[in-house]
């Protein structure tokens, strides 16, 4: 097996090798696991049922007319009798469609306001989501946490409802925030703030992606929502709030590099804001907006040539010798 095939196999197997958390694979919009997604799913099913009924009735009438009244051997070639001005028929085909559109419009309005009118409870988790070309930044203002690409939120149960509110902003172009099993798509637009909320009802990892074309690596702008039990969430919060690890020698090498112009490691003079915050880099499962598992090998490959995995991305290739690269990886892998 060549290295590329091995890489693919490892990557395909990778979700199964994750922690005990179940991985909710992308795509099943008909298995919603949060209130906003459930409401949207119910509305979609109502719409599909109504449209399917209309389609079946119209198709059946057309089929009947074609079969029953089609030209047969021996029929006369003259024009059939024409029917004009039947009030009953005209009223029926005007009123019925109006009623259908009315039902669909009212149901849509009801669901839209049910999602948008949700009040923010005092204990809600508030996160600002910033879309970047091509990664996601998550800032928990109240908790003093900044992370990237993997959004941790608490589980919401019937006994203990816990909401997470997201404030969506863009650092550059238009993106779209979409985690199909949690909520509908929400645009992430420059100079505009959009809001949404989720209350995930099952713990685990949910896959999401950018739903609006935003440049060459749009397809590699994925994200994960990690839904933790309340205890796990608290543990994650305290780990993220802890100061970044410091290992004298290798840290000095990192702080002397140009990496600090774009990246932050809290408590050091690395205060860059252009790239992901690295204070607790190794607490994340993946690298490069969830493209590869996060470990010393992939991290080394990524730093050595970021353009190989994600051509066009904004991380420049920094010329480093093999030993410098080792030092950098040695330091970064201590940031747990
Ligand atoms: Cu960001 Cu597409």
How would you explain this protein's 3D organization?
- This protein is of the alpha+beta class.
- It is built from 8 helices and 13 strands.
- The strands form 3 sheets. Strands 1, 5, 7, 8, 10 and 11 form a 6-stranded mixed sheet that branches.
- A hairpin with a 7-residue loop joins strand 7 and strand 8.
- Helix 2 runs antiparallel to helix 3 (87-116), helix 5 crosses helix 8 and helix 6 packs across helix 8 (322-332).
- The protein is elongated and about 100 Å long.
- It binds dinuclear copper ion.
- The site of dinuclear copper ion has 9 residues, from loops.
Quickly describe the structure.
The chain has helices spanning 3-17, 35-69, 87-116, 230-241, 248-256, 296-304, 306-309, 322-332; strands spanning 23-24, 125-132, 135-140, 145-148, 150-154, 164-170, 175-178, 186-188, 194-198, 204-210, 222-228, 286-287, 292-293.
Which blocks of ≥5 consecutive residues have pLDDT under 50?
Answer: 5-20
Give the quaternary arrangement of the chains.
single chain
Number of strands: 13
- What is the H-and-E element order? HEHHEEEEEEEEEEHHEEHHH
Largest sheet descriptor: 6 strands, mixed
What is the typical, i.e. mean, pLDDT? 86
How would you sum up the global shape?
Answer: elongated
First-residue to last-residue Cα separation: 33 Å
Compute the number of helices: 8
Strand content: 15-25%
Question: What small-molecule ligands were found?
Answer: dinuclear copper ion
**Radius of gyration over all CA atoms, rounded:** 27 Å
Percent of residues in helices: 25-40%
């Amino acid at each position: 097996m060549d290295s590329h095939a091995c890489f693919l196999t490892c990557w395909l197997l990778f979700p199964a090798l994750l922690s005990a958390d179940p991985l909710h694979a992308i795509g099943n919009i008909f298995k919603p696991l949060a209130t906003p997604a459930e409401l949207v799913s119910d509305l979609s099913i109502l719409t599909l049922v109504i449209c399917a009924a209309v389609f079946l009735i119209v198709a059946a009438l057309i089929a009947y007319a074609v079969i029953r009244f089609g030209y047969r051997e021996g029929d006369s070639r003259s024009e059939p009798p024409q029917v004009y001005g039947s009030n009953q028929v005209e009223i029926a085909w005007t009123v019925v469609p109006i009623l259908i559109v009315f039902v669909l419009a009212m149901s849509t309005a009801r669901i839209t306001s049910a999602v948008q009118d949700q009040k923010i409870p005092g204990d809600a988790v508030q996160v600002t989501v910033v879309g970047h070309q091509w990664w996601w930044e998550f800032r928990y203002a109240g908790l003093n946490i900044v992370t990237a690409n993997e959004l941790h939120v608490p589980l919401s149960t019937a006994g203990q409802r816990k909401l997470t509110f997201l404030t969506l902003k863009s650092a550059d172009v238009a993106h779209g925030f979409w985690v199909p099993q949690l909520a509908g798509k929400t645009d992430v637009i420059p100079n505009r703030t959009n809001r949404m909320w989720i209350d995930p009802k099952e713990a685990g990892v949910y896959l999401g992606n950018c739903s609006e074309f935003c440049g060459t690596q749009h397809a590699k702008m994925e994200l994960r929502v990690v839904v933790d039990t309340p205890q796990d969430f608290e543990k994650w919060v305290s780990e993220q709030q802890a100061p970044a690890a410091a290992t004298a020698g290798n840290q000095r090498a990192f702080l002397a590099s140009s990496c600090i112009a774009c990246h932050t490691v809290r408590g050091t003079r690395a205060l860059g804001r252009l790239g992901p915050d690295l204070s607790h880099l190794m607490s994340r499962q993946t690298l490069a907006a969830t493209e590869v598992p996060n470990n010393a090998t992939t991290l080394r490959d990524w730093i050595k040539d970021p353009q190989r995995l994600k051509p066009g991305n904004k991380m420049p290739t920094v010329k480093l010798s093999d030993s410098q690269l080792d030092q950098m990886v040695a330091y970064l892998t201590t940031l747990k």
